[in-house]
Amino acid sequence: MARITRKELKADKFALEVEHTVSLFEEHKQEILRYGAIAAVVVVLIIGFMIYRQRQHAAREAALGRAILVEQTPVGTPPPGSVNVSSFPTQQVKDDATIKVFTDLKNQYPGTTEAEISQYFLGVVQANQGKLAEAEKNLRQAAATSDEKYASLAKLSLAEVLFSEGKADQGRKVLEDLAAHPTIFVSKDQAQLALARELIPTQPAEARKILDSLRSKPGAVSQVALSLYAELPPQ
């Protein structure tokens, strides 16, 4: 089985939404998970954390904030003139630190929203490393134990891992279920775009049908659909 490279695993931006009873610290993140060679594919990953009003949640939110800062720390020498900018010397060192901090958080606060986010991040980092079996395990657990919002994100990443492992039938089932049950984090269009991209190499006719239904939609959806359309073999 071919190893997934970091070049192939990259993410576009997505803004998180939450219920009116809580406040959301929003972040936008690029370069986490990319579907194949199409830079514009809409892949959603969660970056952000909940700041609860209740005082007893302060420790959890602070721990998740620290974990996210580790995940967001760049690799390599900071640009000239940068002030107070930390970095990791290599991607491996960063991955090890990220896995440790999210594992510790998940174990310290089981059953919480922060633990759900940590489980998801662990799967994403392992997918980036090419550790597909471990990534599948963590993403399946995140999909099974999180609420529907976080579960949908885990399922989107899980589907990519399943296709990469050669489990196309399972991956397709996950994406079709996501399309049938969209959330504020993963829309029907996003799930269909992801499925179309995966079907292009083996079932181009099926991919074409999906893209035909999306390429006239307004905004980014049509742009991504047209980009994927260019990858289809000639009829």
Secondary structure tally: strands:
2
**How many helical elements?**
9
- CATH architecture term: Alpha Horseshoe
Low-pLDDT parts are 1-56
Fill in the CATH topology: Serine Threonine Protein Phosphatase 5, Tetratricopeptide repeat
Distance between the termini: 29 Å
Helix content: 40-55%
Number of domains: 1
Residues in β-strands, percent = under 5%
CATH homology superfamily name: Tetratricopeptide repeat domain
The averaged pLDDT comes out at 76
Return the CATH class: Mainly Alpha
Q: What's the main sheet like? A: 2 strands, antiparallel
Order of helices and strands: EEHHHHHHHHH
What is the overall shape?
A: globular
* Helix vs. strand class: mainly alpha
Q: Order of strands side by side in the largest beta sheet?
A: 1-2
Q: Rg to the nearest angstrom?
A: 18 Å
Question: Your description of this structure?
Answer:
The protein is mainly alpha-helical and 235 residues long. It has a single domain, classed as Tetratricopeptide repeat domain (Serine Threonine Protein Phosphatase 5, Tetratricopeptide repeat, Alpha Horseshoe), CATH 1.25.40.10. It is built from nine helices and two strands. It has helices at 58-72, 91-108, 113-129, 132-145, 148-164, 168-180, 188-199, 204-214, 220-229, and strands spanning 23-26, 48-51. The protein has a two-stranded antiparallel ribbon with strand order 1-2. Helix 1 (58-72) runs antiparallel to helix 2 and helix 5 (148-164) packs antiparallel against helix 6 (168-180). The longest helix has 18 residues, at 91-108. The protein is globular, with a radius of gyration of 18 Å. Residues 1-56 have low confidence and may be disordered.
